[in-house]
Fold this protein.
Amino acid sequence: MNIPYYVFNKIAIDSFFIDKVSLPEDRIFLVVPKCENDKKEGIKGLGLSQVIRLIKEGYGSLQYMKKKSLDKVDILKNLYNQSYYLNERQEEIIKNTKVRILKEMYEKIFEEIEGYKPRLTWYIVNKEEEGIYICGKLSKSYTTLYNYDEKFRTFMNKILGYNT
């Protein structure tokens, strides 16, 4: 299926699925490297201003993922029994690391799109046994999103004609 993308210098932003993910911060996974085998027509996507607004909204949603600050008790627990403390805060450490990485990714995208006039094109997106392919190459980000985001998976299956 030919899916619309806004192509900037080195990246392309999906303008069809960008509003079809469950978590706004996951919109970052719909930004892919520019590919050469593009098409001239396909299904209709969102306008550029809506796509940029949704990308900014995804970045903004990271600001609301609160970090828990350390207090004196946390510091003492850490000194007394490090393994217990790390196990107790493992989920929070993973979340904070994810937020930091996603923020950096969003900031790089903003640098890439700033002042650049994109062109609209369509990339061939299809699903095979190994995952989701864009322009004939396996997309790890789309495949990961497909595997854990039910909303995205439902729309992807619908648009590609799968009944699963």
